[in-house]
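Handover notes (outgoing to incoming on-call)

Open items:
1. cysteine desulfurase: sequence verified, structure written out, both below. Nothing else pending on this one.
2. Nothing else urgent.
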Amino acid sequence: MSSTTLDATALKADFPLLASHDGLVYLDSAATSQKPQAVIDAEVGFLTSANAAVHRGAHTLAAEATVLFEEARETVAGFVRAAPEQLVWTSGATAGLNLVAYSLGNASLGRGAPASARFALRPGDELVVTETEHHANLIPWQELAARTGAVLRHIPVRDDGTLDLDGAAEIIGARTRVVAFPHVSNVLGIVNPVAALVALARDAGALTVLDACQSAPHVPLDLPALDVDLAVFSGHKMLGPYAIGGLYGRGDVLEALPPFLTGGSMITTVTLDEAEYLPPPQRFEAGTQPVSQAIGLAAAVRYLDGIGMDAVHAHETALEQRMRAGLREIPGIRLLGDADGAERVALCAFEVDGVHAHDAGQFLDARGIAVRVGHHCAQPLHRRFGMTASVRASAALYNSASDVDAFLDAVSGIRSFFGVAR
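cysteine desulfurase C-alpha coordinates:
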Protein backbone atom coordinates (compact mmCIF):
# COMPACT_ATOMS: atom_id res chain seq x y z
CA MET A 1 0.00 0.00 0.00
CA SER A 2 2.01 2.97 -1.21
CA SER A 3 -0.63 5.40 -2.46
CA THR A 4 -1.36 8.74 -0.84
CA THR A 5 -4.40 7.37 0.99
CA LEU A 6 -4.80 4.55 3.46
CA ASP A 7 -7.70 2.60 4.94
CA ALA A 8 -7.29 2.78 8.70
CA THR A 9 -10.19 0.40 9.32
CA ALA A 10 -8.54 -2.25 7.19
CA LEU A 11 -5.16 -1.63 8.84
CA LYS A 12 -6.60 -2.42 12.27
CA ALA A 13 -6.73 -6.07 11.25
CA ASP A 14 -2.91 -6.03 11.19
CA PHE A 15 -2.78 -5.13 14.90
CA PRO A 16 -3.78 -8.06 17.13
CA LEU A 17 -4.69 -5.98 20.16
CA LEU A 18 -6.95 -3.65 18.19
CA ALA A 19 -8.53 -6.54 16.30
CA SER A 20 -9.31 -8.40 19.54
CA HIS A 21 -10.69 -5.44 21.51
CA ASP A 22 -13.93 -4.69 19.74
CA GLY A 23 -15.02 -1.09 20.26
CA LEU A 24 -11.71 0.14 21.67
CA VAL A 25 -10.74 3.63 20.53
CA TYR A 26 -7.02 3.78 21.18
CA LEU A 27 -5.83 7.40 21.30
CA ASP A 28 -2.65 7.03 23.34
CA SER A 29 -0.09 6.36 20.60
CA ALA A 30 2.10 9.27 21.70
CA ALA A 31 2.77 7.22 24.84
CA THR A 32 3.15 3.88 23.07
CA SER A 33 1.91 2.57 19.76
CA GLN A 34 0.22 -0.73 19.06
CA LYS A 35 2.29 -3.39 17.29
CA PRO A 36 1.38 -5.05 13.98
CA GLN A 37 1.58 -8.80 13.68
CA ALA A 38 4.59 -8.41 11.38
CA VAL A 39 6.61 -6.91 14.24
CA ILE A 40 5.56 -9.60 16.69
CA ASP A 41 6.38 -12.32 14.16
CA ALA A 42 9.80 -10.84 13.41
CA GLU A 43 10.85 -10.73 17.04
CA VAL A 44 9.47 -14.15 17.89
CA GLY A 45 10.89 -15.57 14.67
CA PHE A 46 14.39 -14.52 15.64
CA LEU A 47 14.06 -15.94 19.14
CA THR A 48 12.80 -19.28 17.85
CA SER A 49 15.10 -19.75 14.87
CA ALA A 50 18.26 -17.66 15.14
CA ASN A 51 18.76 -16.69 18.77
CA ALA A 52 22.46 -16.21 19.58
CA ALA A 53 24.83 -13.54 20.85
CA VAL A 54 25.98 -11.17 18.13
CA HIS A 55 29.54 -10.02 17.31
CA ARG A 56 31.00 -12.62 19.68
CA GLY A 57 30.64 -16.17 18.46
CA ALA A 58 32.33 -17.95 15.57
CA HIS A 59 29.64 -20.61 15.19
CA THR A 60 27.08 -20.54 12.40
CA LEU A 61 24.14 -19.44 14.53
CA ALA A 62 26.07 -16.51 15.99
CA ALA A 63 27.11 -15.44 12.51
CA GLU A 64 23.49 -15.60 11.30
CA ALA A 65 22.29 -13.57 14.29
CA THR A 66 24.98 -10.95 13.64
CA VAL A 67 23.93 -10.62 10.01
CA LEU A 68 20.28 -10.16 10.98
CA PHE A 69 21.22 -7.64 13.66
CA GLU A 70 23.29 -5.51 11.31
CA GLU A 71 20.70 -5.79 8.53
CA ALA A 72 18.20 -4.38 11.02
CA ARG A 73 20.55 -1.45 11.65
CA GLU A 74 20.75 -0.81 7.91
CA THR A 75 16.95 -0.93 7.57
CA VAL A 76 16.24 1.43 10.45
CA ALA A 77 19.03 3.81 9.44
CA GLY A 78 17.56 3.93 5.95
CA PHE A 79 14.17 4.91 7.39
CA VAL A 80 15.68 8.17 8.66
CA ARG A 81 17.93 8.46 5.55
CA ALA A 82 21.12 7.79 7.50
CA ALA A 83 24.06 5.48 6.88
CA PRO A 84 24.23 2.36 9.10
CA GLU A 85 27.38 3.60 10.85
CA GLN A 86 25.44 6.72 11.89
CA LEU A 87 22.91 4.72 13.94
CA VAL A 88 23.65 3.69 17.51
CA TRP A 89 21.26 1.25 19.16
CA THR A 90 19.94 2.40 22.52
CA SER A 91 17.20 1.20 24.83
CA GLY A 92 15.12 4.22 23.84
CA ALA A 93 15.25 7.96 23.34
CA THR A 94 15.84 8.63 27.03
CA ALA A 95 18.92 6.42 26.96
CA GLY A 96 20.12 8.15 23.81
CA LEU A 97 19.83 11.61 25.34
CA ASN A 98 21.60 10.48 28.49
CA LEU A 99 24.31 8.92 26.34
CA VAL A 100 24.95 12.26 24.65
CA ALA A 101 24.87 14.27 27.88
CA TYR A 102 27.23 11.90 29.70
CA SER A 103 29.55 11.69 26.69
CA LEU A 104 29.84 15.46 26.73
CA GLY A 105 30.50 15.28 30.44
CA ASN A 106 33.28 12.76 29.84
CA ALA A 107 34.78 15.06 27.21
CA SER A 108 34.69 17.82 29.81
CA LEU A 109 36.79 15.59 32.08
CA GLY A 110 39.40 15.22 29.36
CA ARG A 111 38.37 11.71 28.35
CA GLY A 112 38.35 10.53 24.75
CA ALA A 113 40.51 11.18 21.73
CA PRO A 114 42.05 14.63 21.09
CA ALA A 115 39.02 15.45 18.92
CA SER A 116 36.80 15.12 22.01
CA ALA A 117 38.21 18.34 23.40
CA ARG A 118 35.90 20.31 21.11
CA PHE A 119 32.98 19.19 23.28
CA ALA A 120 34.51 20.07 26.65
CA LEU A 121 32.27 22.32 28.74
CA ARG A 122 33.53 24.95 31.12
CA PRO A 123 31.81 27.02 33.82
CA GLY A 124 29.70 29.68 32.19
CA ASP A 125 29.16 27.77 28.94
CA GLU A 126 25.47 27.54 28.04
CA LEU A 127 23.15 24.66 27.23
CA VAL A 128 19.89 25.68 25.57
CA VAL A 129 16.62 23.75 25.62
CA THR A 130 13.01 24.86 25.17
CA GLU A 131 10.13 25.38 27.54
CA THR A 132 8.30 22.53 25.77
CA GLU A 133 10.69 19.70 26.65
CA HIS A 134 9.77 16.21 27.72
CA HIS A 135 11.68 15.58 30.95
CA ALA A 136 13.95 13.19 29.02
CA ASN A 137 15.34 16.14 27.08
CA LEU A 138 15.58 18.39 30.12
CA ILE A 139 16.89 16.50 33.14
CA PRO A 140 20.04 15.10 31.45
CA TRP A 141 21.02 18.69 30.57
CA GLN A 142 20.25 19.87 34.11
CA GLU A 143 22.59 17.18 35.38
CA LEU A 144 25.28 18.02 32.83
CA ALA A 145 25.11 21.68 33.85
CA ALA A 146 25.45 20.69 37.50
CA ARG A 147 28.51 18.52 36.77
CA THR A 148 30.34 21.02 34.59
CA GLY A 149 29.31 24.46 35.83
CA ALA A 150 27.52 25.19 32.56
CA VAL A 151 24.35 27.30 32.60
CA LEU A 152 21.03 25.89 31.40
CA ARG A 153 18.78 28.29 29.50
CA HIS A 154 15.45 27.78 27.78
CA ILE A 155 13.67 29.17 24.73
CA PRO A 156 10.21 30.39 25.78
CA VAL A 157 6.96 29.25 24.24
CA ARG A 158 4.27 31.70 23.16
CA ASP A 159 0.67 31.57 24.32
CA ASP A 160 -0.31 29.79 21.09
CA GLY A 161 2.25 27.03 21.67
CA THR A 162 4.82 28.10 19.08
CA LEU A 163 8.41 28.74 20.07
CA ASP A 164 9.54 32.33 20.48
CA LEU A 165 12.18 32.51 17.75
CA ASP A 166 13.01 36.13 18.59
CA GLY A 167 13.72 34.95 22.11
CA ALA A 168 15.76 32.06 20.73
CA ALA A 169 17.91 34.48 18.71
CA GLU A 170 18.65 36.46 21.87
CA ILE A 171 19.45 33.36 23.94
CA ILE A 172 21.60 31.39 21.47
CA GLY A 173 24.93 33.15 21.22
CA ALA A 174 28.66 33.02 21.70
CA ARG A 175 28.51 30.99 24.95
CA THR A 176 26.01 28.41 23.63
CA ARG A 177 27.52 24.93 23.31
CA VAL A 178 24.42 22.76 22.91
CA VAL A 179 20.92 23.43 21.55
CA ALA A 180 18.55 20.53 22.32
CA PHE A 181 14.90 20.65 21.27
CA PRO A 182 11.96 18.48 20.21
CA HIS A 183 11.00 18.03 16.60
CA VAL A 184 7.40 17.77 17.83
CA SER A 185 6.14 18.64 21.30
CA ASN A 186 4.54 15.64 22.99
CA VAL A 187 1.94 17.98 24.54
CA LEU A 188 1.29 20.57 21.84
CA GLY A 189 1.68 18.42 18.74
CA ILE A 190 3.33 21.31 16.89
CA VAL A 191 6.21 20.60 14.50
CA ASN A 192 8.98 22.98 15.53
CA PRO A 193 11.01 25.09 13.05
CA VAL A 194 14.09 22.88 12.89
CA ALA A 195 15.81 24.84 10.12
CA ALA A 196 15.58 28.13 12.01
CA LEU A 197 16.91 26.64 15.25
CA VAL A 198 19.72 24.78 13.51
CA ALA A 199 20.76 27.98 11.72
CA LEU A 200 20.97 29.84 15.03
CA ALA A 201 23.00 27.01 16.55
CA ARG A 202 25.33 26.80 13.55
CA ASP A 203 26.03 30.53 13.74
CA ALA A 204 26.98 30.07 17.38
CA GLY A 205 29.08 26.97 16.73
CA ALA A 206 26.79 24.92 18.98
CA LEU A 207 25.93 21.24 18.83
CA THR A 208 22.29 20.44 17.92
CA VAL A 209 20.38 17.56 19.51
CA LEU A 210 16.91 16.69 18.18
CA ASP A 211 14.27 14.70 20.05
CA ALA A 212 12.43 12.99 17.18
CA CYS A 213 10.23 10.68 19.27
CA GLN A 214 6.98 12.29 18.18
CA SER A 215 7.97 12.84 14.56
CA ALA A 216 9.53 9.53 13.49
CA PRO A 217 6.22 7.60 13.48
CA HIS A 218 4.20 10.35 11.81
CA VAL A 219 6.13 12.35 9.21
CA PRO A 220 8.72 11.48 6.56
CA LEU A 221 12.02 11.91 8.38
CA ASP A 222 15.36 12.76 6.77
CA LEU A 223 17.77 13.49 9.61
CA PRO A 224 20.81 14.38 7.45
CA ALA A 225 18.67 16.84 5.49
CA LEU A 226 17.54 18.46 8.74
CA ASP A 227 21.26 19.12 9.36
CA VAL A 228 21.11 18.26 13.07
CA ASP A 229 24.24 16.86 14.70
CA LEU A 230 22.46 14.25 16.80
CA ALA A 231 18.91 12.91 17.07
CA VAL A 232 17.05 10.28 19.05
CA PHE A 233 13.90 8.26 18.49
CA SER A 234 12.11 5.47 20.31
CA GLY A 235 10.95 2.16 18.83
CA HIS A 236 7.86 1.58 20.93
CA LYS A 237 6.29 4.81 19.69
CA MET A 238 6.73 3.79 16.03
CA LEU A 239 5.05 0.35 16.03
CA GLY A 240 8.20 -1.38 17.28
CA PRO A 241 9.15 -3.29 20.44
CA TYR A 242 9.92 -1.83 23.82
CA ALA A 243 13.53 -1.30 24.98
CA ILE A 244 14.90 -0.30 21.59
CA GLY A 245 15.65 3.09 20.11
CA GLY A 246 18.15 4.88 17.99
CA LEU A 247 20.72 7.64 18.31
CA TYR A 248 21.60 9.21 14.97
CA GLY A 249 24.80 11.18 14.70
CA ARG A 250 26.81 12.95 12.05
CA GLY A 251 29.91 10.89 11.36
CA ASP A 252 32.40 13.48 12.59
CA VAL A 253 30.41 14.04 15.78
CA LEU A 254 30.16 10.36 16.69
CA GLU A 255 33.84 9.88 15.89
CA ALA A 256 34.79 12.65 18.31
CA LEU A 257 32.48 11.77 21.20
CA PRO A 258 33.99 9.64 23.97
CA PRO A 259 32.03 6.58 25.12
CA PHE A 260 29.54 6.66 27.97
CA LEU A 261 28.83 3.04 28.97
CA THR A 262 31.88 0.79 28.87
CA GLY A 263 32.50 -2.94 28.98
CA GLY A 264 32.37 -5.72 26.45
CA SER A 265 31.56 -5.35 22.74
CA MET A 266 32.85 -1.78 22.42
CA ILE A 267 36.60 -2.32 22.70
CA THR A 268 39.55 -3.35 20.55
CA THR A 269 42.35 -3.88 23.08
CA VAL A 270 42.18 -4.11 26.87
CA THR A 271 44.96 -4.33 29.43
CA LEU A 272 44.65 -4.21 33.20
CA ASP A 273 45.38 -0.48 33.04
CA GLU A 274 43.67 0.88 29.93
CA ALA A 275 41.49 0.17 26.92
CA GLU A 276 41.11 1.20 23.31
CA TYR A 277 37.63 1.58 21.86
CA LEU A 278 35.96 0.62 18.63
CA PRO A 279 34.76 3.28 16.19
CA PRO A 280 31.07 4.29 16.17
CA PRO A 281 28.49 2.93 16.38
CA GLN A 282 29.93 0.00 18.38
CA ARG A 283 31.85 2.39 20.65
CA PHE A 284 28.50 3.33 22.23
CA GLU A 285 27.02 -0.18 22.42
CA ALA A 286 28.53 -1.81 25.48
CA GLY A 287 27.32 -5.16 26.72
CA THR A 288 24.50 -7.41 25.57
CA GLN A 289 22.75 -6.08 22.50
CA PRO A 290 18.95 -5.69 21.97
CA VAL A 291 18.98 -8.13 19.08
CA SER A 292 15.39 -9.32 18.86
CA GLN A 293 14.18 -5.79 19.56
CA ALA A 294 16.29 -4.36 16.72
CA ILE A 295 14.92 -6.98 14.36
CA GLY A 296 11.39 -6.13 15.50
CA LEU A 297 12.02 -2.43 14.94
CA ALA A 298 13.28 -3.14 11.44
CA ALA A 299 10.01 -4.96 10.76
CA ALA A 300 8.13 -1.92 12.07
CA VAL A 301 9.86 0.49 9.69
CA ARG A 302 9.33 -1.93 6.80
CA TYR A 303 5.63 -1.88 7.68
CA LEU A 304 5.58 1.93 7.74
CA ASP A 305 7.56 2.13 4.50
CA GLY A 306 5.15 -0.31 2.90
CA ILE A 307 2.27 2.03 3.62
CA GLY A 308 4.29 5.13 2.80
CA MET A 309 5.08 7.90 5.25
CA ASP A 310 3.50 10.50 2.96
CA ALA A 311 0.25 8.56 3.20
CA VAL A 312 0.61 8.21 6.97
CA HIS A 313 1.21 11.94 7.38
CA ALA A 314 -1.70 12.92 5.11
CA HIS A 315 -4.09 10.57 6.91
CA GLU A 316 -3.05 11.75 10.36
CA THR A 317 -3.21 15.41 9.32
CA ALA A 318 -6.87 14.91 8.43
CA LEU A 319 -7.48 13.25 11.81
CA GLU A 320 -5.76 16.11 13.64
CA GLN A 321 -7.83 18.73 11.86
CA ARG A 322 -11.04 16.85 12.60
CA MET A 323 -10.07 16.39 16.25
CA ARG A 324 -9.00 19.97 16.90
CA ALA A 325 -11.98 21.48 15.09
CA GLY A 326 -14.32 19.27 17.09
CA LEU A 327 -12.71 20.10 20.42
CA ARG A 328 -12.94 23.81 19.65
CA GLU A 329 -16.71 23.47 19.34
CA ILE A 330 -17.21 21.83 22.74
CA PRO A 331 -17.94 24.35 25.54
CA GLY A 332 -15.49 24.33 28.43
CA ILE A 333 -12.58 22.83 26.50
CA ARG A 334 -9.25 24.68 26.50
CA LEU A 335 -6.75 23.43 23.95
CA LEU A 336 -3.04 23.77 24.62
CA GLY A 337 -1.03 25.20 21.77
CA ASP A 338 -3.98 26.00 19.55
CA ALA A 339 -1.94 27.89 16.94
CA ASP A 340 -3.49 28.22 13.49
CA GLY A 341 -1.25 27.54 10.52
CA ALA A 342 1.33 25.46 12.41
CA GLU A 343 2.33 22.08 11.03
CA ARG A 344 1.15 19.37 13.40
CA VAL A 345 0.87 15.69 14.14
CA ALA A 346 -2.40 14.12 15.26
CA LEU A 347 -2.12 15.04 18.92
CA CYS A 348 -4.30 17.34 21.04
CA ALA A 349 -3.93 18.12 24.74
CA PHE A 350 -6.68 19.99 26.53
CA GLU A 351 -8.20 21.00 29.84
CA VAL A 352 -11.83 20.42 30.76
CA ASP A 353 -13.19 23.36 32.73
CA GLY A 354 -14.24 22.25 36.20
CA VAL A 355 -13.11 18.63 35.80
CA HIS A 356 -9.72 17.24 36.78
CA ALA A 357 -7.85 15.57 33.94
CA HIS A 358 -7.78 12.23 35.76
CA ASP A 359 -11.55 12.27 36.21
CA ALA A 360 -12.02 13.15 32.55
CA GLY A 361 -9.73 10.31 31.56
CA GLN A 362 -11.66 7.80 33.66
CA PHE A 363 -14.91 9.00 32.12
CA LEU A 364 -13.51 8.40 28.63
CA ASP A 365 -12.00 5.05 29.60
CA ALA A 366 -15.40 3.85 30.82
CA ARG A 367 -16.64 4.51 27.30
CA GLY A 368 -13.87 2.53 25.64
CA ILE A 369 -11.65 5.48 24.75
CA ALA A 370 -8.00 5.27 25.84
CA VAL A 371 -6.28 8.64 26.27
CA ARG A 372 -3.40 9.94 28.36
CA VAL A 373 -3.89 12.11 31.45
CA GLY A 374 -1.36 13.92 33.62
CA HIS A 375 1.57 16.21 32.87
CA HIS A 376 2.95 13.87 30.15
CA CYS A 377 6.50 14.24 31.53
CA ALA A 378 6.35 17.95 30.74
CA GLN A 379 5.69 19.69 34.04
CA PRO A 380 7.37 23.01 33.13
CA LEU A 381 5.22 23.32 30.01
CA HIS A 382 2.02 22.68 31.93
CA ARG A 383 3.13 25.18 34.54
CA ARG A 384 3.68 27.70 31.73
CA PHE A 385 0.01 27.31 30.78
CA GLY A 386 -1.21 27.52 34.37
CA MET A 387 -2.20 23.91 34.90
CA THR A 388 -0.88 20.76 36.50
CA ALA A 389 -2.39 18.17 34.16
CA SER A 390 -4.20 17.80 30.86
CA VAL A 391 -6.00 15.19 28.78
CA ARG A 392 -4.06 14.14 25.67
CA ALA A 393 -5.53 12.32 22.69
CA SER A 394 -3.00 11.11 20.12
CA ALA A 395 -3.84 9.23 16.94
CA ALA A 396 -1.83 7.03 14.61
CA LEU A 397 -2.20 5.44 11.20
CA TYR A 398 -4.64 2.81 12.53
CA ASN A 399 -7.15 5.41 13.78
CA SER A 400 -10.13 6.38 11.67
CA ALA A 401 -12.46 9.36 11.43
CA SER A 402 -15.07 7.32 13.32
CA ASP A 403 -12.57 6.93 16.19
CA VAL A 404 -12.21 10.71 16.36
CA ASP A 405 -15.97 11.20 16.22
CA ALA A 406 -16.53 8.72 19.06
CA PHE A 407 -13.91 10.54 21.09
CA LEU A 408 -15.47 13.96 20.46
CA ASP A 409 -18.93 12.67 21.32
CA ALA A 410 -17.66 11.33 24.62
CA VAL A 411 -15.73 14.53 25.46
CA SER A 412 -18.89 16.57 24.88
CA GLY A 413 -20.52 14.70 27.77
CA ILE A 414 -17.80 15.09 30.39
CA ARG A 415 -18.85 18.36 31.99
CA SER A 416 -22.54 17.51 32.21
CA PHE A 417 -21.70 14.13 33.79
CA PHE A 418 -19.74 15.86 36.53
CA GLY A 419 -22.38 18.55 36.95
CA VAL A 420 -20.27 21.53 35.91
CA ALA A 421 -21.89 22.37 32.56
CA ARG A 422 -23.64 25.73 32.42
